[in-house]
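Fig. S4 source data, part A: sequence.
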Amino acid sequence: MKQILTHVFLCLVLATSACSHFDESVAAYEDGDYATALWEWRRLARAGYGPALNNLGVVYYEGTGVPQDPAQAYQWFSLAASQGYRHALENRHVVAGTMTSAQFAEARRLTREWWMLNR
């Protein structure tokens, strides 16, 4: 399952050039500078940028630069999907297959909290 998310992530990275900051953050990620990539993706996520939301889901699913956390991965994929980012639906489905009911409840709480803070 992890390979699917990584593959989708890499395909999206190669196809996306809508935002130069996003491209720079992807380069930072590929260079192992996860702090820079995460900072930029979080900034872009607050603006509702689907690819950044999706990439945050990937890093939380894989635990790259952050502790692995399926609830947060699910949250980010849900937010990306709400922005019409179709790959996020596939990724959310993959994560859902690994989650407990407590993790689903946490993901719902995190998503509601994010919407309240970022409207």
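Fig. S4 source data, part B ends here. The domain at 2-117 is CATH 1.25.40.10 (Serine Threonine Protein Phosphatase 5, Tetratricopeptide repeat).
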